[in-house]
Amino acid sequence: MSAATPTLRPLLERARQGWRASPLPGFFAWWGGELRALLPPRWRAVLADGAGWHLQQQADGDWRLRRAGHAEPLARWSDSLDAAAQQAALAAAWQGTDPEDRRLALLLPAHAVLRRVLQLPLAARGKLHQVAGYEMDRQTPFNATQVYYAVRELAQAAAAGRCAVELLVVRRDTLDPLLAHLRALGITVDAVDLPQGAGRLGIDLLPPEQASHHARPRLRLNLALAAACVLLAFLAMGSWLHNREDALAQMQAQVDAMHGEAQQVASLRKQLQDDAGAAGFLVQRKAQRATVLGVLLDLTRRLPPSAWLERFSLDDSGQIGFQGQSPQAAKLLDLLKGSPLIDNANFQGSIQSDPSTGKERFYMVAQLHKPAPEHAGAGQPAAGGSVP
């Protein structure tokens, strides 16, 4: 970890400086404050930043511990007490604070830290710590191996092409004994800073190799919960999409089924129309075609009472054949003329005399009358004529 720190520290410092120089920190601070102001006090307490900084400062041989932003001390104890008594005093001051949220900053007296304001080129913004190390011999009476130092960018105006930064330096032989003394008391320091009002300046002069590492189980839990929320969100979206696909598939199946039923209905309607047309055609043909009884009735009316028929036939082609006896068979042709049902009546064979009845035996053939087709409407032929 110590070998990687010199390599990572410039990168982290560059990222930190770029973040501070951007307008994003101010915007997010304002936005977060506005959102927190809308919440009830209890919710604001729950959602507040868990890390609570406590400031430890030595004055007149006594240690004082207070909360950052508060002037009144939480505890005060003499440095002459043994380690157990000092730890007990510190633990009493920390009562009610979650151990995970406890952060302790050691505040140095102002005379122990050398502060210098420098004008550096803007190109040095991303590597202020490294540049300050190069400038240490020129700006202070010490070299970089004799001190611990921190650099912060100031908001004050600077010359064109330059930025104003503040260099804060503390001698190692001043800070190391103090840190060793606190470690011997069992007190772990998270930062070394300077007082500013009721709070702290916001720098850290603590050597990187002595930085403390706090276990953060809540952070791991929060990350796990966040990952679970993301996973649940994806699962919910996937479930929604799956349900939509199922609903679409069901609707498509219903549409296909209705389409098949519609085709069946159309087929049945067409079949019904065809059957109705065929039935109408047969009925019309039947109405137009003379029946056997109709032909017999017409013959009965036209033949004289002295004549009778012995045989009658009517085939599908409309050919009529009838045989009988009449006193004057030759006159039957005139009687059949003008018949609406019989056309082209002629004798078949010769007329013979029957000695037993004294009448003439005949055999005639004729053709069933075919009426001319009538036009029904605009040039469309009717199915057939009617028989009067």
TrEMBL record:
InterPro entries recorded: ATPase_NBD, Extracell_DNA_Util/SecSys_Comp, PilN
Transmembrane segments: 221-241
Protein name (record): PilN domain-containing protein
Alphabetical keyword list: Membrane, Transmembrane, Transmembrane helix
Region described as Disordered: 369-388
The keyword Metal-binding is assigned to this record: no
PANTHER family, alphabetized: DNA UTILIZATION PROTEIN HOFN (PTHR40278:SF1)
One Pfam family it belongs to: PilN
Top-level taxon of the source organism: Bacteria
Species per Swiss-Prot/TrEMBL record: Rhodanobacter lycopersici
Keyword Transmembrane helix attributed: yes
